[in-house]
Amino acid sequence: MSNVYGGVYGLLNPQAIDTRNLRCTTGVKIGYLDGNITCFTPSTTTKQYEENYTKGTLDGTVKFYAVDGETVLTEGIINKDLIDGDFNIYSPTNRNVIDEHHYNKESPDGIQRTHDDKTRATTSEQSVSSNISNYIKTFTPEGKPLGEITVERDGVTIKNKRWDPKTGVLIDELMSKNCNYAGPSKHGDSNGALVSNGIYGPAVINRL
């Protein structure tokens, strides 16, 4: 069985679809795997995973289950052996989504999010298009902002922001270009007081 989605972004353990120690029901059509395939823990009716094939090619929904055989841990869409569409990871304790991934023919595309299992707050968010990151945001388990990296349209200019995790105050703003600091830069303390303010040049920072 194909393991095309086994190691992508750490979503699944590559060993997860090893069928040697499982009992599976399969559909076969003209010598090819075809239709729904469900695998169980041997000598039980406890599901381990489900997937779908079309003429020997992974095609359709895949699901991986917790040890109870009922709680879905991972669910995604495979389109002709490629991850294509939503791919979610669920909490084994409350079944809430803790990771949201979106793909376009195996490449991350759109908004990718991670949630805190207990608070349900978003702890990270990334926007990707054409396999290029537009921004990355991180948050505390309570949803307060921690950091933000934004990539400008030129693809080489990056804006960085950082917040104090306790007070929620914006404490750093700076820019870089081609991996070197360039442009306005501000730094403050956790109470919001401005500590430094300047502009980075090719080699030094010019204080304002």
Nutshell version of this structure?
The chain has strands at residues 23-25, 28-29, 32-33, 35-40, 47-54, 57-58, 60-65, 72-79, 82-90, 97-104, 107-108, 110-115, 122-129, 132-139, 145-151, 157-163, 170-177, 180-188, 194-200, 205-207.
Describe this structure in words.
The protein is built from no helices and 20 strands. 0% of the residues lie in helices and 57% in strands. It has strands at residues 23-25, 28-29, 32-33, 35-40, 47-54, 57-58, 60-65, 72-79, 82-90, 97-104, 107-108, 110-115, 122-129, 132-139, 145-151, 157-163, 170-177, 180-188, 194-200, 205-207. It is elongated. The chain starts with 22 loop residues before the first strand and ends with a strand. It has 208 residues and is mostly beta strands. The strands form two sheets. The chain has an 18-stranded antiparallel sheet that branches. A two-stranded antiparallel ribbon has the order 2-3. A hairpin with a 6-residue loop joins strand 12 and strand 13 (122-129).
Helix content: under 10%
Number of helices, where a helix is a run of at least 4 consecutive DSSP H or I residues:
0
Radius of gyration: 23 Å
Instruction: List how many beta strands DSSP finds.
Output: 20
Please report which band the strand proportion falls in: under 5%, 5-15%, 15-25%, 25-35%, 35-45% or over 45%.
Answer: over 45%
Distance between the termini: 63 Å
Whole-number average pLDDT?
Answer: 82
